[in-house]
Each structure stands twice: as structure tokens, then as C-alpha cells.
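Sanity check record (used in CI):
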Amino acid sequence: MEVGSAMTESQTETKSATESATKSKPGQLPVDDVRSLIDACWKAKTITELIPALPKGMKPRYVHVIDAVWHINEPNGQDTGTARVGDVSAFLGVTTPSITKLVGEMADLGLVVKHADATDRRAVTLTLAERGLDIRHIYVEEYHAHLSQLLGGLTSDQCETTVRTLTEALRLMQQDANNR
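Expected output for MarR family transcriptional regulator:
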């Protein structure tokens, strides 16, 4: 027997574990692909942490809410508040209570204005205050324009595939978490 040709029991177990990690049963994603997907999610989180520094007291979530309010109000103009808290939560895919809390904080900071709804006294519509519009201009319009140039080497297909993949992975994992 040649020196070094025999595998120890530990090496055999390691090789077996490695082989099983790369193989999968039909209908299962290989474990190595799962690892790559999770690694990509960590990279995506890091990307979101690279946005320019926000003013003191601003949370990144405020920028998302500001942008949602802007998009919801866009068809009727920014002076006409058609965005409701439920619309914003649906737009962002988060719970209404979490948006209610954020909107309250944002109103206190002068980012959004709450308007009593003429048809439903319990409901309010939202518009962006001047400060909210300024924040959107800097942290959405200008920053996205910068990223458009920076990421110019990526294709629309690459972006769409990434969005579809992450959206579906999130849906499946949330569904799994809710079923546990």
C-alpha cells in the first residue's frame, strides 16, 4: 500500500458530507446553492448599509415610507393626499401597525403631513412635507441616478432575475416561518 493513499475514517466522513452537500434529492435545492443564496442575501444587506449617511434622527425605513407615499400620491400630484397608511403598508409589504408607528414618528419630524379624510373620520391621508420631499430628492432620486451610472454594467435581465429570486425566497421562508 502506498503512503498517503488510504483515507482515514475522518477523511471518508468529510468527503461523504461534502458530496451530500452538493447533491440533492429531486425537488430540493442543493445545499451549496442554499449557502450561495444566503451569502448573496448578506451582500444585499451590506449594499443597503452603504447608502449615504442620513440626517440625525432619520431611520432608513423613513426613506422607504417617503418613497411609497410619493409613488402612491404621484397620479394625483404631491399636493393631493391619496396615500393611506394601509396603502403604504401594502406598497412596502409590511404590517399596517408598523407603518402607523413610523408615520407618527415621521409626522413629528416634519417629514409627512397627516390629513383627516373627508369620507372616513378614522382614516387619514398622507402627503410629504417639504422636508420629506427634500429627503426623497437626495436619498432616492439623486442616489438612484448615481447607482444607475455605477451599476451600468448590469443588465435589466440580471436585475429582474435577482429581484424575482429574492422575492420568491422571502415568500417561501416567511411562509415556512408562519407554519412553524
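The two ends are 53 Å apart (CA to CA). If this sentence no longer matches the regenerated C-alpha cells, the check is flagged for review.
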